[in-house]
Amino acid sequence: MTLSDTIAGLLGLNANDPLQFGIAAIIASTIVGTFMLVNVAIAGPWAKRKITATFTDRIAVNRIGPFGLMIIVADAVRLLSKELIVPEKVDRPAWDLAPLVIAGSALFGFAVIPMGSGIQVADPEVGLAYVFAVASLASVGLVMAGYASNNKYSMLGGLRAVAQNLAYEIPLVLTGVSVVLFAGTLQLGNVNAANTIVGAQQATLATVGGIEIPSWYAFVNPFAFMLFLVANLAEVGRNPFDTPEAPTEIVAGYQTEYSSVYFVLMYLGEFIHIFLGGAIIATIFLGGPAGPVLPGIVWFLVKIWAVFLLTQWARSALPRVRIDQLIEIGWKGMLVLSFANLILTAIIVGVVV
């Protein structure tokens, strides 16, 4: 049962009436969206600074509120109160819509992510295809922002972004398809639904020293897991793949001309995509919200924050590659390896089945 079904039942709404069920779905979407935005609000202004400071042996925010947590409120007030500066000769409709497209595309992806027992807005049979499709809409927003800003650095950032997304989204999807071959379905599901991607990972793969190892696809196919992690770093624009922004080369890339609330939306979109990438990794490789003792929602948070920690480690530890190297790695390396992984997976599944 999805969160929308649960809310419809609690409010006495008819699940067979499209209008009434739509109201329940909107409420469920608001709850899930707010929950993820709270995580992003903690990650962006506060956790990012704390993690980076730890890696680089510096002192991060620690004076505004306990552990510096009130920097979240201070940054929100500071950024939202700034003047919104609109450069001359921008393509205003596209320039205005780009931040909404970038942030909204990631939020829509969480609609099908299972976060715990019954905490899922919807569970369509094409769940994995849906989440890949809506996440890829961010590329449209990046191009809009780069083109509409009437700035050569923004334009270069937009072109870099679309070239990078094309080079790494295909390996990302192909690696996801290898999981679909194992599970035999595109439906993400939950821990109680056996014929879904999450449900298929609930069995025991092996027992080592009395410890049961779950059949998470990260253990079943670690090569695909590593490929997906690398491709995800490129998709969310984290080192060594942060060339669309590249502050030392093109100022801030596609977001150079954005300020005030528009900059907040661009910044928000970046971190929502990082968490969406973590949610996809947790769902298709790490058993979704499954885990011992603790509730599913807690394990889900642990897994997506672990992926966030990995992205911040990469940001602090790995040097940026040149744009030509980045494209070469994507087309000549990741694409070939992802096809090899897909073919090998198909052979293994064909032989075993």
Question: What report would you give on this structure?
Answer:
- This protein is mostly helical.
- It contains 13 helices and 2 strands, in the order αααααααββαααααα.
- A two-stranded antiparallel ribbon has the order 1-2.
- A hairpin with a 2-residue loop joins β1 and β2.
Helix tally equals: 13
Q: Give the overall form.
A: globular
- What is the overall pLDDT average? 87
Sequence stretches where pLDDT stays below 50 over 5 or more residues: none
Q: How is the largest sheet built, in terms of strand order? A: 1-2
| Amount of helix | 55-70%
Would you kindly provide a brief summary of this structure?
With 353 residues, the chain is mainly alpha-helical. The chain has one domain (92-352). 65% of the residues lie in helices and 3% in strands.
Features:
353 residues, mainly alpha, globular
Outline the secondary-structure elements.
Blueprint: H1 3-11, H2 18-55, H3 71-80, H4 92-109, H5 127-136, H6 138-148, H7 152-183, E1 204-208, E2 211-214, H8 217-220, H9 222-235, H10 247-250, H11 260-285, H12 296-317, H13 323-352
Antiparallel strand pairs: 1-2
